[in-house]
Amino acid sequence: MRPIRIALTKGRLEKDTIKLFEKLGFDCEQLHNKGRKLILSIPNENIEIVLAKAADVITYVEYGVCDLGVVGKDTILECGGSFFEILDLGFGKCRFALAGKKGADFYSGYNEKIIATKYPNVTRAFFDKKGMDIKVVKIEGSVELAPLLELSDAIVDIVETGSTLKENGLEVYEDVVNVSARLIVNNVSLKMYQDKIENLVKQIESVLN
Ligand code: PRP
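Above: the input record for the complex with PRP. Below: its predicted structure, written as tokens.
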């Protein structure tokens, strides 16, 4: 039987995911000493780990080349896709927030507001719900720059500790939604490897509690 393949989001979620694997008794030696290698194995479990960017984790799981994925709810909300979201892993907790220059009266006036974000879909959904017309400008990183440079009236972005906002003279105007890391599974894999996946989920649930 081929190994179960788990796509893991590189960066912020990586450390906590490895901690979780270690709690499950997985041998994470390769993950700790990965160098530039992108596909690693958990030798004692017949599991392969694929390291990928968040949005690609979803793509690999959707196409079934990875059976499972660990990815933030922020990316799931932004990218959507067809897979099962089976577990809230409880780490990687942060929130989407609407933020901008400290003291600015964002809600006043009737002019169409410009919102900079890495998450245009989340942003549009948020303002649609409010019935507020906005223009979205897509930014790839350090979105906080946009209101500082007066490209936008505000941003919709991830806030974790709040220090990036604070250190740049920005503040939260409104919380949008809380997010955290999720375990997702390919629709076909869930049927094909039902026992193995259910087992793994039970093991994870037991260490999360
Ligand atoms: C995220 C987010 C904020 C920052 C928030 O960026 O876009 O900039 O983290 O974290 P804080 O509330 O703890 O300060 P990230 O570090 O992922 O980098 P990027 O902006 O280059 O994508």
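Notes for the reader.
The radius of gyration is 19 Å.
The domain at 4-92+180-208 is CATH 3.40.190.10 (D-Maltodextrin-Binding Protein; domain 2).
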